[in-house]
Amino acid sequence: MIDYRDIKYLSTMNDDSIIDPLTQIFSRTAIINIAKGLIKDNIPFTIMILDLDNFKQINDSFGHLSGDFILKSVGDNLKKFCYKNIYVGRYGGDEFLLLMPNVVEYDDVHHKLESLYERNKIFRKYYNDGLRDIYLTATLGCAKYPDDEKDYEKLFSKADKALYRGKLKGRNCYIIYVESKHKDIVVHEIAEGSLIKLFNSSKRLFDIDKGKKQIIKSTVDFLYSHLHCSYVYFLTNERTYITNYNDEEKRAIEYYELHLEKILNGDTIFFETPLTKYKANDEALSNFLNSRAIQSIMVSKLKTYKMNYGYLIIAEKEITRIWQEHEIALVMYVSTLLEMELMNIDKD
Asked: Do 243 and 217 meet the contact criterion of CB atoms below 8 Å apart?
């Protein structure tokens, strides 16, 4: 990282306000001043907003000391990535801002982002805080000055739209702003507040009398639509599965109870990214996942104290999807409703 004393855009700032005390990279005020200075001097650059995925869960699950460790470690690794003329600052909380002067061609930006995620391996990797391994991913959105916008606030807004698009895609990815694709995006909070509407709409699935197969198919289609995932399967206790992509039941040759019970390990809900260790321990499961390019999975077991009705399987390919709390909550809620409905059908 460049010595801040060599940066003219910081000349009016006090030394103690330039560096973020926790991460030892530029503070929010400093990185914004640099961005505005580059615009004032008409120097082309790419602005990148980087957001750590599920950081609140790290704090809530492991404590704030672990959260601080992650932030410090990311700050250290980003400084190494920014050893040349790239500026990095902590924008706030678990968000970082990176500025790449004179890197604005699409292919060049893509190459840098690929390096950030793949070759330098700052993300999509485990960090050990001394007690446990914590798998860390991040979502990034970027925009280019002056091609995308000439005003700082508007430029930041377009990078934020790209970031939002990345979150909608399942996080753990980077998006380069493209006007034709992203101009109509309206950024709003992706939060659990929408769960109330989702819960109410999911209840309507069971308002009309349907047969067993129909209610399962409606549930599968509902989850596929709302989770924006690659596949949803329901594996019945008759070893057939109903999917989102056709109306026919198919024989579940590869996916059967033994393998699902192995990954559930006594629980009724399982979600994980990455799936490397599960693939390594179960050849049949690995073959199934690999044949469909599945990189992330969620499994919900539907059972009462007397009956096992089957398994809901939500799978994602192409990107290593990071399941969010509200998505997991939706699957658990729908599973409970479906359990009750299947129990009532069996009673009749």
From this structure: no
**Strand pairing report for 125-128 and 95-101:** unpaired
Q: Please report, for the chain, how many H helices and E strands are present, in that order.
A: 12, 13
pLDDT digits (tens, 9 = 90+) for 48-106: 999 999 888 888 888 899 999 999 999 999 988 876 688 999 999 999 999 999 999 99
Domain that holds residue 214: 192-347
| Whole-angstrom distance, CA of residue 23 vs CA of residue 31 | 13
| The token pair that represents 259 in the structure block | 């393998």
Q: By the 8 A CB rule, do 301 and 264 touch?
A: yes
Do 320 and 273 contact (CB within 8 A), yes or no? Answer: yes
Domain boundary among 145, 161, 182: 182
Number of neighbouring beta carbons within 10 Å of residue 217: 20
Output the CA torsion sign for 262, 265, 270, 274.
Answer: negative
How confident is the model over 173-226, as pLDDT tens digits? 899 999 888 888 777 655 444 677 777 777 777 776 677 888 888 888 888 888
Percent of the chain with pLDDT over 90: 33
Judgement on whether residues 96 and 219 belong to the same structural domain of the protein:
no
3-state secondary structure of 266: coil
Note whether 294 and 249 are same-domain residues: yes
Distance CA 310, CA 319 (A): 27
Question: Same structural domain for residues 120 and 11?
Answer: yes
What is the mean predicted confidence (pLDDT) over 283-303? 82
Both 37 and 135 in one domain: the answer is yes
Beta bridge mates, 271: 298
With b for 16 or more beta-carbon neighbours within 10 A and e for fewer, the 238-248 pattern comes to: eeebbbbeeee
| Whether residue 47 has pLDDT greater than 60 | yes
Q: Are residues 229 and 280 in the same domain?
A: yes
**H-run or E-run covering 312:** strand 308-317
- Do 132 and 159 lie in one domain? The reply is yes
Whether pTM exceeds 0.70: no
The burial of 338, by beta-carbon neighbours within 10 Å (0-12 exposed, 13-18 middle, 19 or more buried), is given as: buried
